[in-house]
Write a structure and sequence with these properties.
This protein has about 240 residues and is mainly beta. It has one helix and 17 strands.
Length: about 240
């Protein structure tokens, strides 16, 4: 495998603009209540770590701020291995994620037809329960049939863990701390029954970009405990490899 993208955050200040773009604004899906900013107070690199910080403050019509960083427009890829070392935020109402969307969504393809790869999601109201999921037009959370897996992992908010996936033409495997936790397939479900075929069921043979963010509240994040604000999501490194030709 050849390393094709990495950020080990061995600098200080704003996230590297050659690698990361801030997505900003206050209108997001899932009933989330944060305003994403490009402020240094919401996303900064210090002591070798990227910090994504969610705060209680007014911005636009919202009363919380946070950050959402994406490699879209800077880097995207198809098939390979992703690994992110991270310490998750503590606090009810926090909803950090390490996930991927295809470039096609930025070109007008609707969700979930475009596809979505969720490498790690966690909600503070259910601390230490970590989730992976795939969403497609045929299989998604709206239909309550998305391909998903969740597992209890000790001390995700107090120590760094590795969250990753290995992705090829026919399957996507998810690994936590170098351990395989789930694998989903193009042609059949985990129980061995056949899946629908075509782009609606497996839109994953196209370029995707990486997203790191912490949402606040929302239909899954739930009620926010202001006493536990700010939420701090720390990322030690991001690495992506691809098979050599």
């Amino acid at each position: 495998m050849k390393l094709i993208f990495s950020d080990e955050f061995n600098y200080e200040g704003k996230p590297d603009p050659e690698k990361w773009t801030h997505e900003t604004g206050g209108e997001w899906h899932n009933d989330e209540i944060q305003y994403y900013t490009d402020s240094l107070e919401n996303a900064f690199v210090k002591n070798g770590k990227l910090h994504i910080v969610s705060k209680k403050e007014n911005m636009g019509s919202r009363h919380y701020t946070s950050a959402r960083l994406t490699t879209h427009g800077k880097f995207s890829f198809m098939h390979g291995k992703v690994e992110v070392s991270a310490k998750l935020p503590h606090g009810k109402g926090s909803w950090p994620a390490i996930w991927m969307l295809p470039d096609s969504i930025e070109q007008g393809t609707d969700w979930p037809l475009c596809g979505e790869i969720d490498i790690m999601e966690h909600v503070g109201k259910d601390e230490n329960m970590v989730h992976v999921s795939l969403h497609t037009e045929s299989y998604n959370h709206i239909h309550h049939n998305q391909e998903t897996y969740f597992e209890h992992i000790e001390d995700v908010c107090g120590s760094f863990h590795k969250y990753g996936c290995e992705w090829d033409e026919k399957s996507i495997a998810f690994l936590y701390d170098d351990r395989l936790v789930a694998r989903f397939y193009r042609d059949y479900k985990v129980d061995g029954t056949p899946k629908e075929q075509g782009e609606k069921a497996w839109p994953f043979n196209q370029n995707f970009h990486l997203i790191l963010n912490t949402a606040v509240g929302g239909f899954w994040g739930g009620e926010v405990d202001d006493a536990q604000i700010p939420y701090v999501f720390e990322i030690d490194y991001v690495k992506i490899w691809q098979a050599e030709d």
